[in-house]
Amino acid sequence: MDDVVILGIESSCDDTSAAVIRNGELLSNVVASQGVHEEYGGVVPELASRAHQQNIVPVVDTALKRAGVKRSELSAVAFTRGPGLMGSLLVGTSFAKGFARSLELPMIEVNHLQGHILAHFIKQPGEELETPQFPFLCLLVSGGNSQIVRVDSFNKMEIIGQTIDDAAGEAMDKCSKVMGFGYPGGPIIDKYARLGDAKRFTFSKPNIPGYDYSFSGLKTSFLYNLRDWVKDDPDFIEKNKEDLCASLERTIVEILMKKLKQAAKDTGIKQVAVAGGVSANTGLRNAFMDYSKRFGWKVFIPRFSYTTDNAAMIAVAGHYKYLAGDFCGIDVPIYSNSRL
């Protein structure tokens, strides 16, 4: 059998990325991040799409060179079709279509969320990688999504629980912004939380049926409490930032793990993974290790480099779609919603 060499392209938000995978092994993964959004406290879609246009050609060229792969060796081009920012997705998708057509390569559309889940199957050359066994549950948590997904195969996934309003990562970013810490808030809150008392402050938790999540109430509770405390003491945030971050992190992690625990109990599935940007959070990773000991779960936590948006996860998803003969036409449209 000929080598299967997949070029993956990711441009759903503010990171332009390209990766090359040969026979399931990662040869290169290049990411160009955009620091311009930090001063705005969030991603500005128009600026993001412009940066993608500047980055896409050099990023793809670098990925191919680092992999030592010629364009003629490629088997297919995999790209993020959605969900994401429409302008950003258009840049990556349009490039992928033009690139594939010029080389007469088949195209593979990848769901961004599916890519995050399959990041657990990214294998380095010569690496003995332990991967989740099907079926497994995956807690997918990021700035835009908080979902519990049942994964029955590489191409069969079902969302069994999801946020009805804000995502966990979005709540962290907004609370960080309120405290004046900047964007992105997740890493900042993680850093301060390691130094604080997680039981110092109490914030409201939602009471949502089933496996669904809600974080808008927590965000509001945090905002109102902070407003009252600052009214009494203008320096309250600076004096208590470690405890505030630790208490906020603990609350978010407890909300996430309570529903995941219930889903694992009801389904009887003990292979449990976490994915997405918030999976880099230390408190959440510690909770996974704790639950592994307490409930006999076999847990899977991704490498830090695969928690944020990257093309390696798109390429590995493309690899398994290629093996299944799951290709798409050049006229396939992008989408911004969070379907799986």
Written overview of the protein:
This protein is of the alpha/beta class and 340 residues long. It has 2 domains: 5-129 and 306-323, Nucleotidyltransferase, domain 5; 136-302, Nucleotidyltransferase, domain 5. The protein is built from 9 helices and 10 strands. The protein has helices at residues 45-67, 86-103, 112-118, 168-178, 185-193, 216-232, 236-267, 282-295, 311-323; strands at 5-10, 16-22, 25-32, 76-82, 107-111, 136-141, 146-153, 156-162, 271-275, 298-300. It has a 5-stranded mixed beta sheet, sandwiched between helices. Strand 2 (16-22) and strand 3 (25-32) form a beta hairpin. The longest helix has 32 residues, at 236-267. The radius of gyration is 20 Å and the shape is globular.
Characteristic terms for this protein:
340 residues, alpha/beta, Nucleotidyltransferase, domain 5, 5-stranded mixed β-sheet, 9 helices, 10 strands, 42% helix, 18% strand, globular
Helix and strand sequence: EEEHEHEHEEEHHHHEHEH
Percentage beta strand: 15-25%
Radius of gyration: 20 Å
What proportion of the residues is helical, as a percent range? 40-55%
Described by strand count, sense and barrel closure, the largest sheet is: 5 strands, mixed
Class derived from helix and strand content: alpha/beta
